Every structure is written in C-alpha cells, then in structure tokens.
C-alpha cells in the first residue's frame, strides 16, 4: 500500500510539472508575440498611424421585406454581392474628413463628396444624410440593384461603407459632373455641348435604359430619369446614376402600383403622377422629356409660351405639326454645324415617347433603332401627355437645388 501511494504521488508531481512547463512556454510565447507587435508598431512610418488599408471583401447581404438583415447572410447564392467594403478611416482620409471644399453635390440621399484614395484614384462618396426621410431605404435599394449591373452607360459602384450610423456609397468619379450643369447652364456652358455631342449623349442614355429594361438579368425601372441623374465622364459619355427609388420587375411583370409617388415634376408620366402606376413606359416618358430639353436647352417645367399658353411639350408638338420643329434648337447652337434631319428625328422620337397613353410609347429597343437609323420611317406622334398649358402642382413639395421633387401619399 505504501509503494502504491508513493507511485500515485510521483504521478501527480509529474503531471503538475508538465502543466507548469507547458504554461510557461505559452506565457513566454505570448510575451514574445506582444514584443513583436510593439516593435512593428514603433517601426511603422510616421504619419500612417491613423490610416487603415482597404478591405476587399464579399459583402454578404440578405434581401427580405425589411431590407438588409443584421446577420449579413444571404438567402440565396444569386444575391451574393461581390462589393468592396471600405473602412470609415479610409473614407475620412480620402475626403479630408468631409471637408466643405470636397463637397461636389447634394441630393435627396445626402451630400456627395470628391475623395482621393491612397492609390490616387478619385471617387465620389455619397453620404447618407441623417435627415433623409427615405435615405436608408434608398441606400439599401441602390446597393441591391446597381451592384449587379454593369454597362458603359451606367455609373459604376465601387463599394460602400457601413460603420455604425454611417452609410456611404463609393462611385467612380465623373469629371464633367451632371448633364444639367451643361444643358441648363449659361450660354457659354451650353455652347460646349455641340449638336454631335448632344446626339451622342441622347443615344447613350437610350442604350443605358435599354440595358435596364431589356438586356440585364434584372428588369429595372429607374423612376427618376432627369438630367441631374445623368453624369458625364472625361469623354462626355453619359452614365445613368441614382437608383435610390428604382424598382425591379420579375418574371412577366410589366406594371406596378404605388400609394407613394416619388419623383420630379416635369418628368413624371401622367399615369404615374396621377395614379401611381409605373412601368418601363414611365421611364420612356421621362426620356422623351429629357430629349426635348437636351435639344432646346430649356426645362420642361420652367418653359412657358405666353402667346400659345403652352409648356415645352405642347410647344414642341405645335411646331412639329407646323413643320417648324428645327426652331426648337437651342439658341446656343445657332450658327454651329448641325444635322437638321437628325434634330428632327430626335424631336419626333421624343414626341412619340411623351404620348399620353403608355401603350402608344415605343420600347427602348425601338427607340435605340430609330435613333441609329438615318432613313427610318418613324410613326407620326400624337398630342403629348401631361399639362399642355401652364403647369400646376399639387401635393407636398420639397425643393433641392432648384428642382421640385414630389412625394404624394394617397390614402386609398
């Protein structure tokens, strides 16, 4: 019994010794690792303490009725968004802490800043305003839709930043700002857009909408097409932007209805503005308005002819019937080289797009073909939809950068 007891004591002592030895090794390793980290931090270049590298990661988002879930998981593999996630520190460094002189725009979503990343790349950072009533939903919607879309005439989303209450979208920077700064600028600014450039911009917007409506794996209705939502790159190539209120149609769906009409007066189709019904034909109506504005250099909403009591659509229709449509051409282009047959074709296409009845408006595939075919025989347009006389507005209006955006809620 005494020998057995001694053996047990020896075994216990051995176990204790082994545990102590292993613990000592682990403690020594932890100490060495801590010293190594401290040494590396001390050896880092000065001025880089507050900079964090970009993290390239697959942002896992789950689509449901409430938007993106906190679990950051996907409901299906096809919803995987291979999107770059930027650290907040990188965005702050790129925009100089959102300095006032870095601000390049303001929209319903929030302010837009010019940023320069560590590698020199210039980006546009859209920062969600905490005062934005629909900003969170627009942020979710834009990430969900545009991250899956790739086309020469769509602005490219580079990534996003989600940090606490901060929500930001990072886009490629467009050096020539938005189309409205040229079309609705002073005469010298408008002269920079010769007819050839204007026609190429019209055709580019049409190709972008064709992709959204018919050629992408999604069917997207933009719902807020206007010049301020078309950006221009170094070569004046148009890029459709701002998908915050866009909607995706699935399967054989062709129309949808909403109780909450959100858009911009002067561009909304009659059926959408009055009844909340939207479809591809709603975007096509907006496109028609834009074409007339690009041709004339005048806003539909701001234009009024006292003699005929007509807005821009009604005035264009009247001149078209009288065979004088070329008189609509922007005064800033008078005397410059201009293809008048091309101008007349664009005006005719625009009038087809702003038809009162959605069923009469052409599809984007037909529009692209009509614009590209010089000798095509086009249908005769009907009287345009919308108010022909002085424009009036009902509902709740909010003014942003001299634009009137309506949100009208129907309690039906």
Automatic annotation (TrEMBL):
<keyword id="KW-0418">Kinase</keyword>
<keyword id="KW-0675">Receptor</keyword>
<keyword id="KW-0723">Serine/threonine-protein kinase</keyword>
<keyword id="KW-1015">Disulfide bond</keyword>
<dbReference type="InterPro" id="IPR001245">
    <property type="entry name" value="Ser-Thr/Tyr_kinase_cat_dom"/>
</dbReference>
<dbReference type="InterPro" id="IPR000719">
    <property type="entry name" value="Prot_kinase_dom"/>
</dbReference>
<keyword id="KW-1133">Transmembrane helix</keyword>
<keyword id="KW-1003">Cell membrane</keyword>
<dbReference type="InterPro" id="IPR008271">
    <property type="entry name" value="Ser/Thr_kinase_AS"/>
</dbReference>
<keyword id="KW-0808">Transferase</keyword>
<dbReference type="Pfam" id="PF07714">
    <property type="entry name" value="PK_Tyr_Ser-Thr"/>
</dbReference>
<dbReference type="GO" id="GO:0005524">
    <property type="term" value="F:ATP binding"/>
</dbReference>
<keyword id="KW-0732">Signal</keyword>
<keyword id="KW-0325">Glycoprotein</keyword>
<dbReference type="InterPro" id="IPR011009">
    <property type="entry name" value="Kinase-like_dom_sf"/>
</dbReference>
<feature type="region of interest" description="Disordered">
    <location>
        <begin position="378"/>
        <end position="412"/>
    </location>
</feature>
<protein>
    <recommendedName>
        <fullName>Protein kinase domain-containing protein</fullName>
    </recommendedName>
</protein>
<feature type="domain" description="Protein kinase">
    <location>
        <begin position="98"/>
        <end position="378"/>
    </location>
</feature>
<keyword id="KW-0812">Transmembrane</keyword>
<feature type="transmembrane region" description="Helical">
    <location>
        <begin position="12"/>
        <end position="33"/>
    </location>
</feature>
<keyword id="KW-0547">Nucleotide-binding</keyword>
<feature type="compositionally biased region" description="Polar residues">
    <location>
        <begin position="389"/>
        <end position="412"/>
    </location>
</feature>
<dbReference type="GO" id="GO:0004674">
    <property type="term" value="F:protein serine/threonine kinase activity"/>
</dbReference>
<dbReference type="GO" id="GO:0005886">
    <property type="term" value="C:plasma membrane"/>
</dbReference>
<keyword id="KW-0067">ATP-binding</keyword>
<keyword id="KW-0472">Membrane</keyword>
């Amino acid at each position: 019994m005494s020998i057995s007891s001694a053996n047990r004591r020896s075994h216990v002592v051995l176990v204790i010794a082994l545990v102590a030895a292993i613990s000592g090794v682990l403690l020594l390793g932890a100490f060495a690792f801590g010293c190594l980290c401290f040494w590396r931090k001390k050896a880092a270049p000065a001025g880089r303490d507050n900079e964090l590298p970009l993290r390239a990661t697959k942002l896992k988002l789950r689509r449901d009725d409430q938007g993106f879930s906190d679990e950051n998981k996907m409901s299906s593999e096809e919803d995987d968004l291979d999107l770059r996630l930027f650290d907040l520190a990188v965005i702050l460094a790129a925009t100089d802490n959102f300095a006032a002189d870095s601000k390049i725009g303001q929209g319903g979503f929030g302010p837009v800043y010019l940023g320069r990343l560590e590698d020199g790349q210039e980006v546009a950072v859209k920062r969600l305003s905490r005062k934005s009533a629909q900003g969170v939903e627009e942020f979710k919607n834009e990430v969900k839709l545009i991250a899956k879309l790739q086309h020469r005439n769509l602005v490219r989303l580079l990534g996003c930043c989600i940090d606490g209450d901060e929500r930001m979208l990072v886009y490629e920077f467009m050096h020539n700002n938005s189309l409205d700064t040229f079309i609705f600028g002073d005469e010298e600014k408008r002269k920079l857009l010769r007819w050839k450039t204007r026609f190429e911009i019209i055709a580019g917007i049409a190709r972008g909408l064709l992709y959204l409506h018919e050629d992408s794996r999604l069917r997207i209705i933009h719902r807020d097409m206007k010049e301020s939502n078309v950006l221009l790159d170094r070569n004046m190539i148009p890029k459709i932007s701002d998908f915050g209120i866009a909607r995706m149609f699935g399967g054989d769906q062709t129309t949808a209805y909403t109780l909450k009409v959100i858009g911009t007066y002067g561009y909304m189709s009659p059926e959408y503005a009055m009844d909340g019904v939207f479809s591809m034909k709603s975007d096509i109506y907006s496109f028609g308005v834009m074409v007339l504005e690009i041709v004339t250099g005048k806003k539909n909403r701001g234009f009024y002819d006292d003699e005929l009591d007509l807005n821009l659509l009604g005035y264009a229709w009247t001149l078209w019937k009288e065979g004088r449509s070329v008189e609509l051409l922007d005064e800033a282009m008078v005397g410059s080289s201009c293809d008048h047959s091309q101008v007349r074709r664009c005006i005719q296409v625009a009038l087809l797009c702003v038809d009162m009845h959605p069923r009469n408006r052409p599809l984007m595939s037909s529009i692209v073909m009509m614009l590209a075919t010089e000798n095509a025989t086009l249908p005769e347009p009907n009287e345009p939809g919308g108010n022909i006389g002085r424009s009036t507005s009902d509902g709740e209006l909010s003014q942003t950068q001299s634009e009137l955006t309506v949100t009208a809620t129907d309690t039906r």
